[in-house]
Design brief:
Layout: H1 3-16, H2 29-32, H3 35-44, H4 54-57, H5 60-70, H6 81-84, H7 87-96, H8 100-103, H9 106-109, H10 112-121, H11 137-146, H12 156-159, H13 162-171, H14 187-196, H15 206-209, H16 212-218
């Protein structure tokens, strides 16, 4: 095929991507070897990595640029196995898109460094962590410090941990509803929750809810 015709065909494919998400499905590998064509395709659609050959799926620079361009971690789903778990890529994706951990594989969700990085930015990302990491004191503490409601996703043992629950209710008083029954009776815990949000008294132990003197002293 003459060079001019090849270029016209590449341009047509890029244009067709606007209305046809599968326009890249049968693109020759030789087209992908043209880095400018590859960039145009990858930046035109976040789904483009799905149809790319392996050497494109394994190109870290292109992947990071695509995630940045789309402000979306979706291209990570179709990246090579190596890049799907590479920390520098994952960290960039987390900074760009808060849904990154949700669409990542189990290896990523079980990586302590990655999950800690994620929950420090969005505590509720704890929901996407592995069961093991939902039992990790450092990770759960970071999560509830960022967002008290992350206590909902902690293991039962940590929902009964004084330091964890205190950090949670200090961040969001209503997270008291996720604390253990024992800590819902703890005066200091409930006082801290009330100091953050007076409405949180509804989640306290019944005896404290009925103790008007306690409530008056606890409210800021």
């Amino acid at each position: 095929m003459p060079a001019k015709q090849v270029q016209q065909e590449k341009e047509k494919i890029i244009q067709d991507m606007s209305t046809n998400s599968r326009a890249l499905e049968k693109v020759p590998v030789e087209f992908w070897e043209d880095i400018e064509f590859a960039k145009k395709a990858l930046y035109r659609s976040k789904y483009a990595f799905r149809y790319a050959p392996f050497f494109i799926k394994d190109n870290e620079e292109l992947l990071i640029e695509a995630i940045s361009k789309h402000q979306d971690a979706f291209p990570l789903r179709d990246a090579s196995p190596r890049l799907k778990t590479k920390k520098s890529v994952i960290f960039h994706a987390i900074d760009t898109d808060g849904r990154t951990l949700n669409i990542s594989n189990e290896a990523v969700k079980s990586d302590c460094d990655i999950v800690l990085y994620a929950v420090k930015r969005n505590g509720e990302d704890l929901r996407n962590a592995s069961s093991e990491l939902k039992s990790n004191f450092e990770i759960v503490l970071a999560a509830v410090t960022n967002n008290g409601n992350a206590l909902e996703f902690a293991c039962n043992k940590l929902k009964d941990d004084y330091d964890i629950v205190m950090a949670a209710v200090s961040s969001n008083g209503n997270s008291l509803k996720h604390a253990s029954a024992r800590l819902k009776k703890d005066h200091d815990i409930v006082k801290s929750a009330l100091n953050n949000n007076g409405v949180s008294i509804v989640h306290a132990d019944q005896e404290l809810k009925e103790n008007k003197l306690f409530i008056l002293k606890a409210l800021p």
